Amino acid sequence: MKRIMGLDVGEKRVGVAVSDPMGWTAQGIEIIQRDGRQEWLDQLAKLIEQYEVETLVVGFPRNMDGSIGEKGEACQELSRLLEKQFKIPVELWDERLSTVAVERTLIDADMSRQKRRKVIDQMAASWILQGYLDAQGRK
């Protein structure tokens, strides 16, 4: 069974999560450094192939009032690029407060700031993907 991959796309890093084969749970798997345009896409392509991904879910940063700002527009543009490059569906998923929620969880777990920086993007990708999976289960 094919999997769904969640991405938390930042300017410098991309958190990556993947669903289990049944599409029930999300697991953070990697953080890709977004240095050059093609290098990170090549790394993503390897993960898509390795996990037999059939759909990408990209965190979509909306403003708190629901409007789409500059980062949201950049995400829409990126999702079109990903769809064209990998020839699989790309869904945008509202990620408002995902990073904040993950950061709170890590602080509550008494994790140091340095350790939080290493895992927050990956955990945010899991949070985004899990929200998407849960919503699909309700449909």
Question: Can you tag this structure with a few keywords?
Answer:
Nucleotidyltransferase, domain 5, 139 residues, five-stranded mixed sheet
The CATH superfamily is identified as YqgF/RNase H-like domain
- The low-confidence runs, each spanning 5 or more residues with pLDDT under 50, are none
User: Order of SSEs, N→C?
Assistant: EEEHEHEHH
Shape: globular
Strand order of the largest sheet: 3-2-1-4-5
CATH class: Alpha Beta
| CATH structural fold name | Nucleotidyltransferase, domain 5
Count of separate DSSP helical elements:
4
* Structural class by helix and strand composition: alpha/beta
Major pleated sheet: 5 strands, mixed
% residues in beta strands = 25-35%
- Domains (count): 1
Total beta strand runs: 5
Mean pLDDT: 86
Roughly how many Å is the radius of gyration? 14 Å
Helix content: 40-55%
From the 3D coordinates, which CATH architecture would you assign? 2-Layer Sandwich
Distance between the termini: 19 Å
